[in-house]
Amino acid sequence: MDRLSRRLDVASPKPIIRASLENGLLTEEQARLALAMADHRNLTAHTYNEALAHEIFAALPAYRELMQVWLDRLARS
After folding, report:
1. Among 64, 75, 58, 66, which residue's Cα sits nearest to residue 17?
2. In CA terms, which of 16, 19, 35, 76 is 20 to 30 Å from 3?
């Protein structure tokens, strides 16, 4: 995908994740993880639950790895 020839008209996380999957920037597994990350982000903005905080904290290394892969692919596109 040529960076200058394609433009995605999306502005929120879930459509961007889906568009990234459709354009080969994410695998299905990575897209599922990214959608879970978006859900976790939404939960942290509206929920104050210590058990949930521990669950999200445990997922952070996987989210960091996913974001690095995603950014690398975006940089190459």
Report:
1. 66
2. 35
Counting Cα atoms < 13 Å in the Cβ hemisphere of 62 gives 15
Query: What is the distance between the alpha carbons of residues 39 and 47, in angstroms, rounded to a whole number?
Result: 12
- The answer to whether 16 touches 10, Cβ cutoff 8 Å, is yes
The answer on pLDDT for 4 being more than 50 is no
Nearest CA-CA partner of 68 in 32, 40, 30, 36: 30
Rounded to whole angstroms, the Cα distance separating 35 from 43 reads 12
**31 phi and psi angles, rounded to 5 deg:** -65, -40
3-state secondary structure of 19: helix
pLDDT in tens, 11-38: 789 999 999 999 999 999 999 999 999 9
CA atoms of 42 and 77, how far apart (whole Å): 28
